[in-house]
Design brief:
- With 94 residues, this protein is α+β, with helices and mostly antiparallel strands.
- The chain has one domain: Alpha-Beta Plaits.
- The chain is built from three helices and four strands.
- Strands 2-3-1-4 form a four-stranded antiparallel sheet, covered by helices on one side.
- Helix 1 packs antiparallel against helix 2.
- The protein starts with a strand and ends with a strand.
């Protein structure tokens, strides 16, 4: 089972606009059996920016989830600048 962590930085003023889009996207992704989605914010701001973290747990089929995530990001209407800076790290249970 894999756990995916997707992180990026935002201007603090953009969080209000982006958060509902992210939550809708995560709700869509979590509709799949076994997938749990969470949205987190770094406690300490970095250089005045807010770091957001999307967490996806319970991923059994990585390639299929990667496709679903890319499609959900596209449908969410996230700004191109945010999409370009998204970084994904994948971990698995030992």
């Amino acid at each position: 089972m894999q756990h995916w962590f997707v992180y990026y930085k935002l201007d603090p003023s953009a969080v209000r606009e982006i958060e509902p889009r992210l939550r809708g996207m995560q709700q869509e992704l979590a509709a799949a059996p076994g997938i749990r989605a969470r949205l987190m914010r770094r406690v300490e701001p970095a250089d005045g920016a807010v770091t957001l973290l999307e967490v996806y747990d319970g991923i059994e089929q990585a390639a299929a989830f990667d496709d679903r995530l890319a499609a959900a990001v596209s449908r969410a209407g996230l700004p191109a600048s945010l999409v370009a800076q998204r970084r994904t790290e994948r971990f698995e249970d030992l």
